[in-house]
TrEMBL record:
Function summary: May play a key role in alkaline pH tolerance.
InterPro entries: Asp23
Pfam families: Asp23
Taxon lineage: Bacteria, Bacillati, Bacillota, Bacilli, Bacillales
Record protein name field: Alkaline shock protein 23
Similarity comment: family membership: Belongs to the asp23 family.
Length: 145
């Protein structure tokens, strides 16, 4: 969460400069990196997240991502929906690699743990049909307001 730089002046006054990151920033970086992985259809936030997504006009990129951000290290928990027929261990390895690289490159923090929980497996057609149905319900809700 913080990168520290100690600065010493002629009078030997030590000042600490700190760079910190909100958990939301780390979750957003992880979400964007995860979206680049073929085979992950969506991050899944569970039942309550689905309800709140229907009330919002756009999907939250941080949905389904939990982050513990320390001063120099990050641990992440991901909940995902994976495309049927894809090799899930390969998807996991690619996801971990992309997240670690993105977070390290952008923040300098070390990702020490990534846990991925597969909440569902769907064909791409099934996933797109479900999304279309959810979008239609969302539009009807807006019309009623």
């Amino acid at each position: 969460m913080a990168n520290e730089v100690n600065t010493t002046t002629e009078n030997e006054v030590v000042r600490e400069n700190k760079l910190t990151f909100e958990d939301q920033v780390i979750k957003k970086i992880a979400g964007i990196a995860s979206n680049e992985v073929t085979g992950i259809l969506s991050m899944s936030g569970g039942f309550m997240s689905g309800l709140t997504d229907r009330l919002r006009s756009s999907e939250d990129i941080t949905k389904g991502i939990g982050a513990e951000v320390g001063e120099r290290q990050v641990a992440l928990d991901l909940k995902v929906i994976v495309e049927y027929g894809k090799n899930i261990p390969s998807i996991f390895q690619e996801t971990v690699a992309k997240i670690k690289k993105s977070i390290s490159d952008m923040t300098g923090l070390e990702v020490v743990e990534v846990n991925m929980h597969v909440e569902d497996v769907m064909t791409r057609a099934e996933f797109e049909a479900k999304n279309k149905s959810n979008n239609e319900q969302e539009e009807k809700s807006r019309e009623l307001q």
